[in-house]
Amino acid sequence: MSQKYDLPKICGFVPSYHELKANKRYLWCSCGLSKTAPFCDGSQAGTSFKPVMVKGQCDGQEALFCECKHTKTPPFCDGTHANLEGGYQQDDPESPVNAKIQQVGNVDDALTKLDNGCVVVRPNRLDKKQEGTIRWCPLVTHLEGAEHQTQFYAEVGQGQSPQLLAKDVEMVIFVFEGSGSIALAGKSYNLLPSSGVYVGANESFSFDNPDEAPLKLYITRCPGGEATSLVFLDDREKGSIKTADDQDEKASEKRVAVLDENVRNAMGDRFWQILVDESYGADMITQFVGHIPPSKAMPHRHLYEETLIFKSGQGMVWTLNQKTPVGPGDVLFLPRKQWHSVQSFGPDGMMVVGVIYPGNNPGINY
Ligand code: FES
Residues 111, 71: one domain? Predict the structure, then answer.
């Protein structure tokens, strides 16, 4: 006789991390009754639940198995846990543990290094180079420990900019301030504050700024490699770049994303909206915008590398042993698996813009 359960039973609100073995089969417990969670021990007998099998693709394959049992992508976490009752917990910045954490750096520093490779960069404190109408500087490169992305800050002055090239990489661009247009793949696209832009590999692009106020941009290339410079096109290279007529067949017409509150995703009391992702043709780069209300998240980690641009508001970046203040324009670089949390001050909270690589879901953490 089948027994009635209030199933699935939630085993936890954080996924569990495992490294799989090549060709080994794993049975994930979907009912939550297993004593060997996240793996099945047969306890589902008498219920309508069945375990879900997954086979390791290679030795060391990293997996985050869902422990809340409500994922829509079983057996792996999809971030649903954060929206279950009790699933999103906040941290107390005044707790005895947090009270011992020392502040390092301040808002006048160009760069603050925190533990385990976490870095905060403040572009308004960095020297800039000039190329035509573009003043620019590197923000996050392999020199800061980045393995998967390189990020630059650029201010485009009035008029037509020189041409740039996404040489052998894909790029995403975020419009921090100002408006204008970008010429890309043979077309012109309007740019508004908080627009996101996708640039395919080996495409050239240029900006037109009709205003006196600069167009302030964050330009991220993935993979990052050892680049420390934007690539400006000279006449010798102009014949080798892609034009509108020789784009890849997969190339999307979608290039510029704008804020749209109808496509927001909730994560506890926060929200985020994807700007650029694979639907734009991006290969494992995801650019998103998010809001952090006045609060401090619990410390957590991600499997992807991330840069987080602080768009508005004031806050504090915490690692497990240090903390540093951040404000508009600053960038936080997080290596993979870096413990961190962001505290937001003030009534309006903070708006942030993230670039994750490789990854497609900013809602997954562990
Ligand atoms: S642990 Fe279930 S969705 Fe994340």
Answer: no
Q: Which of 60, 87, 114 is the last residue of a domain?
A: 87
Q: Are residues 10 and 153 in the same domain?
A: no
Q: Report residue 108: phi and psi, to 5°.
A: -90, -5
Q: Find out whether 125 and 115 touch, Cβ atoms under 8 Å.
A: no
Last residue of a domain, one of 62, 87, 112: 87
- Which pLDDT tens digit goes with each residue over 283-308? 889 999 999 999 999 999 999 999 99
* 161 CA distance to ligand 1 middle (Å): 46
Q: Is the CB of 214 under 6 A from ligand 1?
A: no
Same domain, 65 and 113: no
Q: Are residues 187 and 259 in the same domain?
A: yes
Burial class (CB in 10 A: 0-12, 13-18, 19+), 194: middle
Give nearest CA residue, ligand 1 atom 4: 77
Expressed in angstroms and rounded, the spacing between residue 12 Cα and the centre of ligand 1 is 8
Q: For ligand 1, say whether the CB of 78 is within 6 Å of any of its atoms.
A: yes
pLDDT in tens, 51-75: 999 999 999 999 999 999 999 999 9
Q: Which of 132, 182, 190, 187 is nearest to 162 (CA)?
A: 132
Helices (H), the chain: 96-99
What single-letter amino acid sits at 93? P
Q: How many angstroms does the Cα of residue 68 sit away from the middle of ligand 1?
A: 5
How many CB atoms within 10 Å of residue 156? Answer: 26
Cβ–ligand 1 distance for 15 under 6 Å, the answer yes
Based on the fold, state whether residues 76 and 112 are members of the same structural domain. Answer: no
- Same-domain check for residues 263 and 290: yes
